Amino acid sequence: MSKKQKIIASFSLIAAIILYSPLTGGMNIGIAALLEGAAGVGLSGIIGYLALVKLQAFGSPTNAKDYAKIWFGYVFALLCFVRLNLFLIHLDIEYLAQFILLIIVYGALAAIFGYFFGKFKLRKNR
């Protein structure tokens, strides 16, 4: 396991412990909310980053399909910060449904626009 993978795994474990254990039950409400918010945003950020890595969004695109994957990956990561963190903090199915619906709508739009952008850019560079 590389150093980056160890850091991601350890932060994910710490965030899961903060979110899903009774550690924050006896704390001050403000401190507990701050810890849970930071853990939720951090965990959703890790999920978004891992999606970007899996979609190979950090590489150099060679065809229009690569542009579509990159655009979809960045929209997915953004929506992880916006909606998935609320699901991870509250465990309310409504937030998960909103996240999935937003991924379907905006992810599809981003992939389509990214594909056409890639087609236009690659045709322009010839």
Describe the protein's architecture and organization.
- The protein has four helices and no strands.
- The protein is mainly alpha-helical.
- The protein is elongated and about 65 Å long.
- The model has no long low-confidence stretch (mean pLDDT 91).
Low-confidence stretches: none
Number of helices: 4
Radius of gyration: 18 Å
**Spatial separation of the terminal alpha carbons:** 42 Å
* Residues in helices, as a percent range: over 70%
Helix/sheet category: mainly alpha
Q: What is the strand and helix layout of this fold?
A:
Elements: H1 3-20, H2 29-54, H3 64-90, H4 93-125
Helix pairs in contact: 1-2, 2-3, 3-4
Descriptive tags:
single chain; 126 residues; mainly alpha; 4 helices
Gist of the model:
The protein has helices at 3-20, 29-54, 64-90, 93-125. The protein is mostly helical and 126 residues long.
